Amino acid sequence: MKFEVKNRFTGEVRFTAEIDCAEDAPVSIKLGLAVKWAVKTDANLAGADLADANLADAYLADANLAGADLADAYLVGANLARANLADAYLADANLAGADLAGADLAGANLARADLADANLAGANLARANLAGANLARANLARADLAGANLARANLADAYLAGAYLADARNLPSGIDQADPPEPYVRKPSAEVYAERAARFRERNPDVPVIPDIDARILALVEANPSALDMGSWHSCETTHCRAGWAVHLAGEAGYALEKQYGPERAGRMIYLASTGRVPHFYATNERALEDIRECAASQANTHLKQ
Length: 306
Fold this sequence. Notes:
The chain is mainly alpha-helical. It has helices spanning about 25-40, 190-205, 215-225, 240-250, 250-260, 265-275, 285-305; strands at about 1-5, 15-20, 235, 240.
């Protein structure tokens, strides 16, 4: 049977899956089968409405679920390794025992989610909302929790070796906020970022790629300090925020992406395709410029080593 999966924001049909299922089966079962069909056929799940989906033990490694609505979804034992779940809505989802190693959960809403025994090693949870989440016995080794909200989170027996907790909010008492002993790598290597970018480009071939994006933005800002305005996506033809510059530098393809997904999502996608990472688009001008300089220098060093 055919089953339509819609965009959580616009209600438009995201894709139509071919599933083998009884007509009177629960929607949660149909959604689960539709997602599995989408992964097998490389359909784009970004922004899809997948609330209440039954995805127990599903294989979703490397899936693009950015911005998807997975509220109350049942993901027990699912394999989401390296999946893109940036900005996904996972409030109250059951992810007990799920494999989320290396997954991108930046900005995701995981409030009250059950992540007991989940493998989150190396996952990007920067700015994620984990308020009330159950992380008992979860593996958070080397996870990036910078700026994450951990209010009332259950971290009993969680493994946090090498986790990055800078600016994490509402840390439960007893959690060490200091940097772990050296050697310690705070950020993924250039190779890891390159692999992420390659995977993203493979799944999203229409997203434009901007080589040395941060170096190009830096050159424009150094030539005209007013060119960077983090308070507005596009102030004028020569002044944009960081995401706005990504869209503008991509030209017609960038603005077409912005029209379809909005400026933040378009900027995120262009940065992922170009660098394998997503910067913070709501930083101050000073913090954003500081990071742009750092990223531009890193890009230059990478070229020198090649």
